[in-house]
Protein 1
Amino acid sequence: MLEFFLNHISFQPDTLELLNKLHARPNSEHQRHLERLAEEAQAIAKPKAVYRVAAIDQRGEDYVVLGGTTFRSRILAVNLKQVYRAFPFVATCGVELDKWVASKDDTLDHFYADAIAERALRAAIQTLVDHITEHFRPDGLSEMNPGSLADWPLYEQKPLFSLLGDSPAMIGVSLLPGMLMTPAKSVSGIWFPKAESFASCQLCPMPKCPGRRAPYEPDLAARKYGIS
């Protein structure tokens, strides 16, 4: 099974974008405060990612066998119906930034540092997507993450980490007993080729979600996935 470690990821915090996201005024003490923290973060940040290229061995109505590992999800099985390989992955802001965030005792410092670490995680994810796109030329990419939908619950982290073996630990990511990860700013899941883009947000009715990436489609679960 092909495996790729992305250990040299460039990260330059965009302080103006952060200011806007955090609703802080530009040309203020808040901006100077944030810029100081961004400089600290950039000096130590080492975001990372790892992914494998896994063949789809078998499909059922509510499960799929990927790289010899069984995942139970009706939605995942339908999404992978027309493809022959997928890309299980873990991405992280890195243990360096995780420790840096934890060291911030001041409430505002911690808030800003946490937001910067989130941007480092996003940089890792984007680098991973760019790498898959460059090397495998998929006709579009979508992802699913354990715990993002009731149909694919958080305990599916266990088979995902089993499939990835020792690779997450090699980039500093551990799976905790409750199936959350450390560093906290880490994400795991499966990327897969899909011409028609999919996001779990399309099936999630949660209002005012700050992480929403696509509008909720109330009829999609029944229409496409046969879930009432």
Note: The longest helix spans residues 107-136.
Protein 2
Amino acid sequence: MVNIQDETILREFNLYPLWVRREALNQIDTCTSPFQANAQTEVISIPSLDASKAKSPEIVQKREAEPASSNRIIPDADWPELKKKVTDCTACKLRATCTQTVFGVGDEKAEWLFVGEGPGADEDEQGEPFVGQAGKLLDNMLAAIKLKRGNKVYIANVVKCRPPNNRTPEADEITQCLPYLQRQIALIKPKLIVALGKTAATALLGRDATLGSLRGTKHDYQGVPLIITYHPAYLLRSPAEKAKAWQDLCFALTAFTAR
């Protein structure tokens, strides 16, 4: 039987209850699921990845050249220095309207790095990324692939200050703030990056594209596999897309295993 915690996570992804007979299991092409049923007659069926994507093909998209703004951050800045630079930064107009900067949180030697767009109201108040309703969903997304915030996981945003009314960060704001994220990545040396939403994806890739065209492909960020999925805030507004997010997480697991 599925335990209560797993059932809750499955419901978050609109994947519960979905049942098939055990004898049909071998005919279902699924990614490795964290939910292993013990029942003798029924198991959970999880939406599968396309077989051609689940085999972790070679990286097909590489990041374009870093923007010139990356030179603004001292290349060898350590964590304390980088955190101070973010706290003291007034390079764009966002700092004047936010309560505080939101640097990032988690394991500074993490294997997994999750990158969002920017702080919201709760994050601006508490100084930590993904602490509101979107953060609760992100925690469930992590739990679905047996990860936990702070345990081999680091969470950061492209911009470190909340945009007014939670609007999308403007191009110049991203340009000014992106070097901080780039330095965080260099310090963490993650084995896999998951970009949450279009803003994070296009900032890391250095080019514009639709989220739909970027999902399902193993991209490259300076030699690190980069997987792209929906932002949890978008999933809260569009719950029907949660099953697709689950596919992306399965794909991320495949990419992580095959790195």
Note: The chain has two domains: 4-48, 61-257.
